[in-house]
Amino acid sequence: MPKRPLRPCRQPGCPNLVEKGYCPEHKRKEQRNVRESFRRLDERKNPEAIAFYRSARWTKTSLRYRRKHPLCERCENRGLVVPSRITHHDPPLEELWRQGYTGYEEEFLEAVCWDCHQEKLREKAK
Known about the structure:
Layout: E1 7-8, E2 17-18, H1 24-43, H2 47-54, H3 56-68, H4 73-77, E3 86-89, H5 93-98, E4 109-112, H6 114-125
């Protein structure tokens, strides 16, 4: 199978060519940005929610769900093909807990891409 053509690094102004994403020089910057974004998300959560999302059980549940749903469910509904990156609760985890659920029930999970997850958080903040 032929390789994909090289494209410019996603870092604005970087002349390096890569198969996808960032060049090795900027890959670390991308990873730091993702970690920083998750740190900001954690600031909004209570300690119980942070412990839940860091648990091995949630990690396994999230990965298993995204294996079943490899594409972002919201983008897919709009006819787009975008890989899912995050497993999202809808309604929010705290609301599920108030209703007596554990947070691991698949009917309340949604596989979304980073952009759709951020969009949902912006809606929630309004």
